[in-house]
Specification:
The protein contains four helices and twelve strands; from the N terminus they run ααββββαββββαββββ. It is an alpha+beta fold. The strands form three sheets. Strands 1-2-3-4 form a four-stranded antiparallel sheet. The longest helix is centred in the N-terminal third of the chain and has 23 residues. It starts with a helix and ends with a strand.
Length: 195
């Protein structure tokens, strides 16, 4: 009797694992790339509801990238390092991140999944040195000293509102425009000015 219970328990566990693996594996035919999210990336993918979540099915297996790992999905990617953990970046935020160079950009690696701003008007991801925001006025990265000053002034809830441009060069340094003003960084003095 105990042997029968042990065998049926193993069968139930095996069946459960097989069903779960079918839900997470995006290998529907031999014509598609076969991928299997594992470890930290696999855990995060499962937390996001796997192929029925915002990322969709996978397009590749995990691969090394700049001292970390990345796995590509239909609508984005999950990025992992031992220091930052596994975080998804997708949609227009991912388009901006990739256009900037991904983990080799000034932003470096993601440190959060996609979040909603407190006022519910925008979405953003946190990165090691700044954030990318997708709001009604566009998708823009804010980082470095300009990010620090914008944070000091209350982010989007402050008087400046959401960013409306990416950073751009000035003869004296860098500038970023917001809905209700701008922040400039002076390359010679390191001083930040708000207007």
């Amino acid at each position: 009797m105990n042997t029968i219970r042990a065998i049926s328990g193993r069968v139930a566990l095996t069946t459960t694992l097989a069903v779960l693996s079918l839900g997470l594996a995006a290998c529907d035919s031999t014509e598609e790339p076969c991928c299997w999210p594992t470890a930290g990336i696999g855990t995060r993918y499962a937390e996001l509801s796997g192929p029925t979540g915002p990322l969709g099915g996978c397009r590749s297996g995990e691969h090394d990238r700049d001292s970390g790992r990345v796995q590509d999905f239909q609508h984005g990617a999950i990025y992992w390092t031992a220091k930052t953990g596994a975080w998804e970046v997708y949609g227009l935020i991912e388009d901006k991140y990739v256009s900037m160079g991904g983990p080799t950009s000034v932003l470096r690696w993601p440190i959060s999944g996609e979040l909603s701003t407190p006022n519910g008007l925008a979405r953003f991801n946190r990165f090691e040195t700044g954030n990318i925001y997708h709001s009604p006025v566009g998708t823009h990265a804010v980082y470095g000293g300009i990010f620090g000053e914008w944070a000091r002034q209350g982010y989007e809830k402050g008087r400046l509102g959401f960013p409306t441009t990416d950073e751009y060069d000035l003869p004296t340094g860098r500038r970023m425009d917001f809905e209700h003003g701008w922040i400039e960084w002076n390359a010679t003095t390191g001083q930040l000015t708000t207007g």
